[in-house]
Amino acid sequence: MDRHLRRPSISEATVARLPVYLRVLTGFAEGGIATVSSEQLAQAAGVGPAKLRKDLSHLGSYGTRGVGYDVEYLIYQISRVLGLTQHYSVVIVGVGNLGHALAGYAGFGTRGFRVAALVDADSARVGETIAGIEVRHSDELETIVKEHEVSIGVIATPASAAQDVCDRLVGCGVTSVLNFAPVVLNVPDSVDVRKVDLSIELQILAFHEQRKALSEAAS
Amino acid sequence: MDRHLRRPSISEATVARLPVYLRVLTGFAEGGIATVSSEQLAQAAGVGPAKLRKDLSHLGSYGTRGVGYDVEYLIYQISRVLGLTQHYSVVIVGVGNLGHALAGYAGFGTRGFRVAALVDADSARVGETIAGIEVRHSDELETIVKEHEVSIGVIATPASAAQDVCDRLVGCGVTSVLNFAPVVLNVPDSVDVRKVDLSIELQILAFHEQRKALSEAAS
DNA sequence: ACCGCTTTGTGCACGAGTTCACAATCGGTC
DNA sequence: GACCGATTGTGAACTCGTGCACAAAGCGGT
Predict the structure, then answer these.
(1) pTM, two decimal places
(2) How far is the CA of A37 from the C1' of C18 (A)?
(3) Phi then psi for B119, rounded to 5 degrees?
(4) B214 touches chain A (CB under 8 A)
(5) How much is the pLDDT for B3?
(6) Is B93 exposed, middle or buried (0-12, 13-18, 19+ CB in 10 A)?
(7) Which residues of chain A are modeled with pLDDT < 50?
(8) What is the b/e burial string over B157-192, where b = at least 16 CB atoms within 10 angstroms of the residue's CB?
(9) Is A199 an 8 Å CB contact of chain B?
(10) Is strand C less than 7 A from the beta carbon of B67?
(11) For residues B112-141, b (16+ Cβ closer than 10 Å) or e, as one string?
């Protein structure tokens, strides 16, 4: 019964690529393509064919030698491994520009993620409805999390409030956090945090820009 | 004269962490702290002390044994290595919710990034002013890039338009792209692309949620 | 001028991730 | 029913990143 489970727990790097494969496959499926080779899929996903095959091999042997992968079946398998066959409730904290954008993001609705509520500290915003989701006051955060069994918290507050919000989320049982605030969050080991940081991305690009400029000047 | 240049080109993983150090250091500087040990800095940045020291060692020997690092000096050195002592012009394409949020993001103004213009395909939005930046029509993209010597393009359009916009950016000389659209962009090797993808982050969190749920069930 | 305390910088071993190359295996064809 | 071209799955070499442990080096007190 635990036939699928005792896999040597897929590597983090692989997990980070699976969603990309999933998206590309979904595109293929909509285009009416029934099977793909590792070559095609790798091309579309922007990785090497060998890496792709190794990634997929980590989750089982779903593929036919000489033919390729069945698109629908692979979509199902990746979804299952990623845990997308279940449903997750998400709460978004902070209704600034970013919170707005996140609430309207289509990616939430699809693929098993449901936004339970938007939450903000500013009472003036409470009662609004954004993208069909009601805005509630942050005092109610704990209530909302319990009520909707929220497991993922998204932090879109100013940096100064982020750690505080995070502590409260963790305090009432949230075990995964997606942080958009430019701070390093402090959490217990049992909680997963992923951060999205615009200014870091820009600075990395700046580094490469400079590198290119320098190597050009050296010629 | 090329004393600094012939470093063995800092590793990608290190470059990705330098902006974090920089931010933490800036916080320390504002708090009036003059020197930090690798221990303190590592703690605040959420990494191990050894890794931090190795990272910093890759850009030179700025630090005093028995004492630590001078905050201001280290800020300067990291800024220099990242290329933040120069100025970069950025163009943001797509004025949806996300484009709005990005335009208002404080991280742009500081640290040498200047938003040359917001650009959108929708004529109805042209002429608006968002966060002090004028919205112009996407037909003018090429003109704007030339005029302001834009080197970084930010794509905040729907997925369907992203590749097209990207091609045009690359076509008129942009060599770094920050992509928020959920697609894999196709670019020549000479162009750097970094992607920020909300739905991917969520799916990765979902995977870990599931993993935690399973290992809990096994107990 | 020396000594001891503190903290950096780094050599080394280890582990994770990537790439190559090829054997194993499938569907189709004669 | 056996061959053939195509494509997967994977062992093995290699590269890259991380963590440990310690020698080198500075500062302050005596």
Answers:
(1) 0.95
(2) 20
(3) -135, 135
(4) yes
(5) 43
(6) buried
(7) 1-5
(8) beeebbbebbebbbeeebbbbbbbbbbbbebeeebb
(9) yes
(10) yes
(11) bbebbbbbbbeeebbeeebbebebbebeeb
